[in-house]
Write a structure and sequence with these properties.
4 helices, CxC1, alpha+beta, CxC1-like cysteine cluster associated with KDZ transposases domain-containing protein, 4 strands, about 45% helix
C-alpha cells in the first residue's frame, strides 16, 4: 500500500502540482503575502465530487468544500489556495505552506536546546521580510 501511494505521489500528483506551486509562490511573493484565492470558473464534462477538507494554518483551522474532478483535483485546488494535502486523491486535511516551511526550517536546525528553534524562527521571519532587532 505504501509503495502504491508513493508511486501515485511521484508519478501522478507531484508532476501536476509543479505549475500550480510555481504560480502560488509567484502570487504570494515567496510566501510573504497571502494572495486572494483564485477564482476558477472553467467548466468541464468530468464527473464532479464534493470533498470536505480541514485546512490548518498557524492561527486557525478552516473548513473548505471543494468540487473536484479529474481535471481539477483536490491537491491542485488546495495548493492554489496555499495548502498542501495530506493524501493524493481525497485528502481530509491540508497544511498551510508557510507552516510547512517553518517546520522544514525548524527540523533542519533542531538541536537538543532552544537555539535551533530560535534560529528557525529568525530565519523564517527573515524570509517573510520581517527583521528582528534582538538575537
Amino acid at each position: 500500500k505504501r509503495h502504491n501511494q508513493w508511486q501515485r505521489w511521484t508519478r501522478d500528483v507531484i508532476p501536476r502540482l509543479i505549475d500550480v506551486y510555481a504560480d502560488y509562490m509567484s502570487r504570494s511573493k515567496g510566501l510573504r503575502e497571502i494572495p486572494a484565492t483564485p477564482c476558477n470558473t472553467t467548466s468541464c464534462s468530468c464527473d464532479k465530487k464534493l470533498l470536505e477538507v480541514d485546512c490548518i494554518s498557524f492561527d486557525r483551522v478552516v473548513h473548505v468544500s471543494l468540487q473536484t474532478c479529474r481535471c481539477r483535483t483536490a491537491p491542485m485546488q488546495l495548493l492554489a489556495r496555499g495548502f498542501f494535502p495530506c493524501a493524493p486523491i481525497a485528502p481530509s486535511m491540508a497544511f498551510d505552506l508557510r507552516l510547512l516551511e517553518f517546520a522544514r526550517l525548524l527540523f533542519a536546525r533542531l538541536t537538543p536546546n532552544s537555539t535551533g528553534w530560535c534560529e528557525a524562527v529568525e530565519v523564517f521571519m527573515y524570509l517573510l521580510r520581517y527583521r528582528l532587532d534582538t538575537k
